[in-house]
């Protein structure tokens, strides 16, 4: 499974969304109402609601003067960028590493470690100018040498992570990968603060892809030999970064503890300590007792009213740039038939599951792009409204005929869907509705629920499933939501027309032209259904009313503002 595209178990939104593209993913702490709340009206909160009575803040939270605590699903401990085992690892490293280039509130590139950059007329060579006096958390200088090292090891033949940098076709990258060269010719260090890189062909996402996190050559490269990257595993729990915080301690199943990085280029964070609470528990209880300072919840009126009644939390509505989906095991013969996948989409009452049961705090998804994306469209898109009769017709056409027990059969095999999900109220709703829906169209539905993400991911990796619930990380460029369908990342999906259109969309920086191509791509995927698109989320952030300067970016979440958070 790709770690960058299928990061979140369950069909609910992450509580923390720190990164824009490859390292998104986070704790699932939203809650959902039961199906009997379908008649309630959608939540109307449209702007920040400030805590009306901080005197109600629990003593536990009042006593914290230099520490902010959040909940996070237990990460694996692989805290080196480009080597994460889950999105939760990415949440941890995002506090310790900063990228060359970030994005602004419109999803456009903005300076971070790189002060500026230029693109050559042929759109192939990028030149980055680093800020002066950059340092890693151990006080050592951050220079162009470190950038070159980072790009280089990602081309090593032993690298098996999910970075997209090797896909850009950096000049000389393939030769290095094959061991035919001792350096990558397309990477040129001009001076300590300036580096250029030449790619094979124009790529609209190259700037942000190249502008990812930077690893210290002195630290991560001291034991580097071509073809040998296993040593980096020994450094996962001892990271040397350049972000706002430094890892102090990781206790699996309990917490990840950070302290402020005095060398952070934007200045030492205002709050000295930061903790991810990773122990299992009721997020509502943690918020109510003051054990955590920040969480997210589905934006139902019930949740909003309950949060308001606490008196001591600020409530901020937020629509993230993500989408959720049911991953389909296309290696299973029955699911290789497009008609069967379409029947699943028609036969599942997504409106009841993702919108009505959440009191309107959601929207049905039919394409791999969020509504806030500049490429989003509904033109020519099949909405797959709940039509069990249509689902049954498609299954008939696919040769699946109801047996004596009502379950469809073909060539002596019953039509069974083994579903994997994570433990949550929303999963409970999904299973209850799906069991009824699928039984009505002759499908034997067999759900399996996991208490933690790592267990679910392991099961998916093993291939013992038919459907599994996932959500994407934050998506900045439209291509971000499409990567999982490329080059066999979704095993069993190989459509040459998709690859052709995908490459065409990346080959130009003309926004209008890209939008037209993505419209074609969305129609293709909407028909192919290599995954079953499910929903977009509407959430609210609830956080300790003492926290000042918390802001949210549509594409970066809360990442950029964390160093500025201060407890008043």
From TrEMBL:
A GO molecular-function descriptor: peptide transmembrane transporter activity
Domain Solute-binding protein family: 110-486
Cellular component aspect of the GO annotation: ATP-binding cassette (ABC) transporter complex; periplasmic space
Domain of life per record: Bacteria
Locations listed in the record: Cell membrane
Keyword Signal: yes
Gene3D superfamilies assigned: Dipeptide-binding Protein, Domain 1 (3.90.76.10), Dipeptide-binding Protein, Domain 3 (3.10.105.10), Periplasmic binding protein-like II (3.40.190.10)
InterPro entries, A to Z: Peptide/Ni-bd, SBP_5, SBP_5_CS, SBP_5_dom
Database matches in Pfam families: SBP_bac_5 (PF00496)
Recorded topology in the membrane: Lipid-anchor
Keyword hit for Signal: yes
PROSITE patterns the record matches: PROKAR_LIPOPROTEIN, SBP_BACTERIAL_5
Signal peptide: 1-26
Entry protein name: ABC transporter substrate-binding protein
């Amino acid at each position: 499974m790709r770690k960058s595209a299928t990061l979140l178990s369950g069909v609910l939104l992450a509580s923390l969304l720190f990164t824009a593209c490859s390292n998104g993913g986070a704790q699932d702490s939203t809650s959902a109402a039961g199906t009997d709340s379908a008649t309630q009206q959608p939540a109307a909160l449209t702007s920040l609601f400030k805590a009306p009575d901080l005197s109600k803040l629990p003593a536990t939270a009042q006593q914290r003067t230099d520490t902010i605590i959040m909940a996070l699903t237990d990460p694996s401990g692989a805290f080196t960028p480009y080597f994460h085992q889950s999105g939760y690892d990415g949440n941890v490293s995002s506090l310790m590493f900063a990228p060359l280039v970030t994005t602004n509130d419109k999803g456009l590139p903005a300076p971070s470690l790189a002060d500026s950059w230029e693109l050559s007329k042929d759109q192939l060579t990028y030149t980055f100018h680093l800020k002066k006096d950059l340092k890693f958390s151990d006080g050592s200088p951050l220079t162009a040498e470190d950038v070159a090292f980072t790009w280089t090891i990602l081309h090593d033949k032993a690298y098996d992570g999910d970075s997209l940098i090797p896909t850009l076709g950096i000049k000389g990258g393939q030769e290095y990968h094959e061991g035919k060269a001792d350096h990558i010719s397309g990477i040129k260090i001009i001076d300590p603060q300036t580096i250029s890189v030449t790619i094979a062909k124009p790529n609209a996402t190259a700037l942000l892809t190249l502008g990812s996190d930077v690893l210290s050559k002195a630290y991560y490269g001291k034991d580097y030999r071509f073809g040998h990257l296993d040593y980096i595993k020994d450094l996962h729990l001892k990271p040397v970064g350049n972000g706002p915080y430094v890892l102090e301690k990781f206790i699996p199943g309990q917490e990840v503890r950070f302290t402020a990085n005095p060398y952070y280029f934007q200045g030492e964070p205002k709050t000295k300590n930061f903790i991810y609470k990773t122990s299992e528990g009721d997020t509502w209880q943690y918020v109510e007792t003051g054990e955590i300072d920040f969480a997210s919840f589905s934006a139902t009126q019930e949740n909003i009213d309950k949060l308001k009644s606490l008196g001591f939390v600020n409530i901020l509505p937020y629509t993230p740039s993500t989408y959720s989906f049911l991953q389909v095991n296309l290696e299973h013969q029955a699911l290789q038939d497009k008609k069967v996948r379409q029947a699943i989409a028609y036969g599942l009452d997504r409106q009841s599951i993702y919108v009505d049961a959440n009191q309107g705090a959601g929207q049905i998804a039919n394409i791999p792009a969020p509504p806030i994306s500049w490429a989003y469209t509904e033109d020519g898109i099949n909405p797959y409204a709940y039509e069990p009769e249509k689902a049954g017709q498609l299954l008939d056409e696919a040769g699946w005929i109801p047996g004596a027990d009502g379950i469809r059969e073909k060539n002596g095999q019953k039509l069974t869907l083994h579903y994997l999900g994570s433990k949550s109220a929303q999963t409970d709703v999904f299973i209850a509705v799906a069991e009824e829906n699928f039984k009505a169209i002759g499908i034997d539905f067999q759900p399996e629920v996991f208490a933690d993400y790592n267990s679910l991911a392991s099961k998916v990796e093993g291939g013992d499933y038919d459907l599994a619930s996932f959500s994407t990380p934050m998506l900045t460029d439209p291509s971000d939501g499409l990567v999982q369908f490329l080059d066999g990342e979704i095993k069993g999906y190989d459509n040459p027309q998709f690859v052709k259109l995908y490459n065409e969309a990346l080959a130009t920086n003309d926004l209008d032209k890209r939008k037209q191509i993505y419209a074609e791509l969305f129609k293709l995927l909407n028909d192919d259904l290599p995954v079953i698109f499910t929903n977009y989320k509407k959430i609210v952030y609830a956080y300790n009313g003492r926290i000042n300067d918390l802001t949210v970016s549509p594409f970066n979440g809360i990442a950029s503002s964390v160093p500025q958070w201060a407890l008043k």
